[in-house]
């Protein structure tokens, strides 16, 4: 043995801690036995919880694909309600005002978001499939029933209530589960998943414009949509996988505890105010296009232009992972509010309708896709479903009344330019008010102006 090796072994032996030293350090000057017991206590050996999100892997991206399919089906019809509204006004519900017909879509939106108050808690404790499977069945059944509707109360029950409940179960299970698999690339993953809803909204108005000529064609449309939805939702159920283990359900008063977190409360109310006005163009862009005398093709496709812009915006939401998710949410909602005030009001030509639809859809879609990522960013992993559900529950109240208020403003002025101007002013102001709440939430978390938040 060389002298260098002997010196190394001697230094290693001196550096190696002895168990007696560890016990005495654990209980200074105390009983070695009690120190050993404390080292072997169950609390120190208990698992520290699930590992962090992997941000990659087959199951992670398969879950994103499953969420994409679920939202492709669920939000496709919801985002095409502007086309349905125009069709109902000209056919089965021609004796009703725009505001009255919009209650079908408003009730559908209300139940979609309100269900989060219950779904979020269930998701956190039991996973996605306990919501997704029954939601898929209710959703497809509601489509069959809607195809048989002729009277207003029937549409309220089938498309407003029944469809809204099924949509809620599908939405809240599929929107929350990707956050369990991603942390660093969370905005990208959620943006891809949520883009499915707007891609469907781009395609459906084009198809609907060719199918909604007679009553029997609407029956065939809903029958086809039911079969396709059942197939895609089945694939979604097979692809989606909950990463976190089942846990004891949070107490019902857990939602009240979340209201003590000021940044979360401010952000939840910011979403509510933005949604109060954000969907006005989705409901009324087709009727506005018809008002100014555009061709029937432009009238129907105007909603496709909004959804096409939204699809691009959602796919680019991944930029929030680098410049800040809340920063990007503030920017996108600010631009959406300005567009409503500055460009929705003076629309008078077909090119203006197309340009507004694409640009507004881009920023609206960008904002909406950032919501789950922002809430997940300010939440513990086992609170994501609960907080998303609570936020959507607050949003539901505003989403219920937003489109009908805009519709009432339009109807009160005879459906003319002044009515659409008043509806645009109302929507733009409340969207900008929501932006102020988002700014407050962001600076509660970090007061540095250029921080990545």
Automatic annotation (TrEMBL):
The keyword Transmembrane helix applies. Keywords: Membrane, Transmembrane, Transmembrane helix. PANTHER family: MONOCARBOXYLATE TRANSPORTER (PTHR11360), RIBOFLAVIN TRANSPORTER MCH5 (PTHR11360:SF177). One of its GO terms (cellular component) is membrane. It is a multi-pass membrane protein. Residues 24-53 are annotated as: Disordered. InterPro entries: MFS, MFS_trans_sf, Proton-linked_MCT. The keyword Transport does not apply. It comes from Cryptococcus neoformans (strain H99 / ATCC 208821 / CBS 10515 / FGSC 9487) (Cryptococcus neoformans var. grubii serotype A). This is Major facilitator superfamily (MFS) profile domain-containing protein. The chain crosses the membrane at residues 58-81, 101-118, 130-146, 152-175, 187-206, 261-285, 297-316, 328-347, 353-376, 388-410, 422-445. GO terms for molecular function: transmembrane transporter activity. Belongs to the major facilitator superfamily. Monocarboxylate porter (TC 2.A.1.13) family. It is found in: Membrane. Its main location: membrane.
